[in-house]
Amino acid sequence: MKRSVEIYDTTLRDGSQGEGINFSVHDKLRIAERLDAFGVHYIEGGWPGSNPKDIEFFAQARRRRWRNARLAAFGSTRRKGIPVDRDEQVRLLLEAETPVVTIYGKTSLLHVREVLRCKPEENLAMIRETVRYLKDHGRTVIYDAEHCIDGYKLDPDYAMATLKAAAEAGADLVVICDTNGGSLMREVAEVTALAVRTLPCPVGIHTHDDIGLGVANALAAVEAGAVHVQGTINGYGERTGNCNLTSVIPCLTFKMGLKTVPRRSLRKLKELSQFVDEIANLRPNPRQPWVGSAAFAHKGGTHVNAVQKITASYEHIDPALVGNSRTVLVSDLAGRSNILMKARELGFRLHPDMPEVKEILRLVKEREHQGYEYEAAPASLALLIRGVLEHNPELLFTVETYHVSMRRDAQESICEATVKVRVGDQVHHTVAEGDGPVNALDGALRAALVRSFPELRKVRLTDYKVRILDSAAGTAAKTRVLIESTDGHEEWGTVGVSENIVEASLQALADSLEYALLRKNRLRRRHAKGS
Amino acid sequence: MKRSVEIYDTTLRDGSQGEGINFSVHDKLRIAERLDAFGVHYIEGGWPGSNPKDIEFFAQARRRRWRNARLAAFGSTRRKGIPVDRDEQVRLLLEAETPVVTIYGKTSLLHVREVLRCKPEENLAMIRETVRYLKDHGRTVIYDAEHCIDGYKLDPDYAMATLKAAAEAGADLVVICDTNGGSLMREVAEVTALAVRTLPCPVGIHTHDDIGLGVANALAAVEAGAVHVQGTINGYGERTGNCNLTSVIPCLTFKMGLKTVPRRSLRKLKELSQFVDEIANLRPNPRQPWVGSAAFAHKGGTHVNAVQKITASYEHIDPALVGNSRTVLVSDLAGRSNILMKARELGFRLHPDMPEVKEILRLVKEREHQGYEYEAAPASLALLIRGVLEHNPELLFTVETYHVSMRRDAQESICEATVKVRVGDQVHHTVAEGDGPVNALDGALRAALVRSFPELRKVRLTDYKVRILDSAAGTAAKTRVLIESTDGHEEWGTVGVSENIVEASLQALADSLEYALLRKNRLRRRHAKGS
């Protein structure tokens, strides 16, 4: 049987320490659900003792079912000088009601003396008592040995004494942390091997990428016997980030032949990476190992030629295994199969040879060049495909004119929108106020449409995202709006692009409502039979 | 004496294969001059056989003086079936008139058979004859063994025979290349160690970052005896890029204690990295190890507190050694120490015990709870700090009213903004059109202010970012706008938050212009003395 390595995700805790990352409770829940579906073994949701948002996260997470992952709350050993059952931060850890609690403690004498400012023995007692207390309350306890490599270099005996204190108090796992991320592979391997030899419990690894070795150090630890790897999606984290799970998982699986998450999940690795970037509102890094858009792109003439001869010649692995794809080389073909797959997902049946497929592909490329993105907007893609298949069918409604006005003076601030919408022979002219221009326009548009389509009352927006494309152009840059809508049963995403945020929002709103109307009764049925 | 490792830069050749990178001859010369001053040992300028731009580069490079680096022209072994002195590509290598010529040849039987489509013996002859020919013409010859690790795994005897062919024909150095970037550290170390043991010449290493181990694999090879490392600045290169010299050089120097480039050069490492990004027109990666703007950024309150106690506690090295500096991010995780450090960076002098510090902290937390984010908006933070220190000073200008209107009908789409701005006793009432509401408002506000403050003409926006907070609230969600501005010398960031994107943008725009006016003449001077 293959050796297994557990994956412990801390995107929501250590990852959120990264510059420019600010997850809402809702964001965190959405990411946690994806991680659970992906198959990581642990999800560290936050540090309830550090902020109210994390307390709220665990309160909401308790009410959900988790299929694969076990939730972990993060915290520290008790404070010096008080009994563990009086420590507020420890109490909050229990109140998070997670099956797993992860606490960090000091390994380095430097930190014990200069940061904690307590006696070395007191630190050992803090570790021992906190671990035991959490175990007594029925938790699986993971002990993160902070600054473990640096602490070991400074005073190996004391460092090992802290690890033993945790293990002997009942910790289920002791994790070697290279907190400052400045260690070399052989240093990490040495300390890990020693811990594996001497501790009564399994050993894990937690690394950072400060000198560019976050992933390499985790792999070195696994070679030395670690059976648990902590990291974050896309390597988010303080400073240069944590060990990147989107690299370390495929390295462990495909290069070292170990068992991590299910193989079929790995085919969604790129999708997961993009999803998390999207939620964090970060631009995906095209050069990211394994999952970046350029990771299997071939530019050099020789390479492309060789790749055509034998794909293995300039690729270390089949890109599909991590949900990525080769680019450059007949991107036409790759694109076509993508479109066919998407169309099938959306309920259309297309054959590769239909002339419409080529037209759809051309349109998608043209619009993506303009800034549209269909990855997160399948409903807009469905409307585009339908448009080609039915040769520009009549729309169910048309926004003929609109006017949005905002006025602020000393007394008040008013935002008002009017729309004139045509539905067949009827014209609805409506007005609404809102918090901002888009909100007002949304109100006016719905007010107009429910007159003809009362079923739209059930439809509401669940997500609204704006991204500025080519942001260096200042306020004249293009804006991409992504909208998620729901009718209580199903969710769908739409997209709009324009220099004008109001116009881009209107496109995405109109697509969303059009899709809601077409969806069940017409769109699918017609084409499922049709072609 | 310390062991030395040679640094071979291929930014201009392999780096230029990266997606989105397109250097002109002039760009290449500027980068080469910087690399020379920095102290790399070799600069690979291009492949004269592959394009006329590279021929031109060498023609111009010949006329310059190189102080530290030796220039290398890159090419391949002769083609199959012709004598080496008839090979056009080899002739162009000599005509580049560089002291060093680097050629690559096939190591892997797979490539010999499927890509070259020649006999294994013919490939050995191609290697031998090309090396000898270039040696006979007085060149230092570096032999790059393409696909060396993969080739070794496939057929170790043949792979080693190719390396020996090169070395015995007189190559000055044989370089182990992990061309597809898919190898693990121990695989690279094994092949390198064998080459070091068996070849009569020194051994180098050339790695790629496809699985996230570009730097780690180069270090593993050096540990196994390699004395020469090939890579690119910022890790540019095909797919996910080459071994990143901005990581590998400081790792070798500071972590492994080896001699590479002069220590004083390393203090300009960040500058070099930024310079090359600028020439390539790429946005610097804030999370880049060693040299990224976030590489020594501290966000968590505990960390910041500890960093102040002892800088070594959460930093693996003094950032000044690589020309970087510590930054402190102000966020809802932050404590008082963050604020004090940040205020100092911004030119204020605060003492921890001043009652204003508590008030500033309270305000920051309150506003971050509302959705403001100061880590990317230090200019807005400076205005906030000033506001507290001066007990709500009078603003230089006030936007008394504004009106924004957008109208679209069948004929046209118009977006217009008016503002009424008070500056002392004067009131300016202006109007402007724009691509969207924010663009129009920006135009009107500037038109108003330049009447009183002509110096604002120089100020322009360089970046405009929008983030929807708690996006699940639909179009009524809060909007955070981050703006970057410049006057051509300095850059500064400001922030605005509101349910209304126009209002949020106006706040950030107003902060930006207020800061531009206060900055030099008032803000700093006053408080540098004042408190």
UniProtKB/TrEMBL annotation, chains A, B:
Gene3D superfamilies: 1.10.238.260, 3.30.160.270, Aldolase class I
Signal sequence, start to end: none
UniProt-listed InterPro entries: 2-isopropylmalate_synth_dimer, AIPM/Hcit_synth_CS, Aldolase_TIM, Citramal_synthase, LeuA/HCS_post-cat, LeuA_allosteric_dom_sf, PYR_CT
Keyword tags: Amino-acid biosynthesis, Branched-chain amino acid biosynthesis, Isoleucine biosynthesis, Transferase
Domain Pyruvate carboxyltransferase: 5-273
Keyword Acetylation: no
Pathway recorded for this protein: Amino-acid biosynthesis; L-isoleucine biosynthesis; 2-oxobutanoate from pyruvate: step 1/3
Transmembrane segments: none
GO biological process, one term: L-leucine biosynthetic process
Entry EC number(s): 2.3.3.21
Catalyzed reactions per annotation: pyruvate + acetyl-CoA + H2O = (3R)-citramalate + CoA + H(+)
Keyword Cell division found: no
GO molecular function, one term: 2-isopropylmalate synthase activity
Superkingdom assignment: Bacteria
NCBIfam families with a match to the protein in the record: citramal_synth (TIGR00977)
Family statement drawn from the similarity comment of this UniProt entry: Belongs to the alpha-IPM synthase/homocitrate synthase family.
Protein name: Citramalate synthase
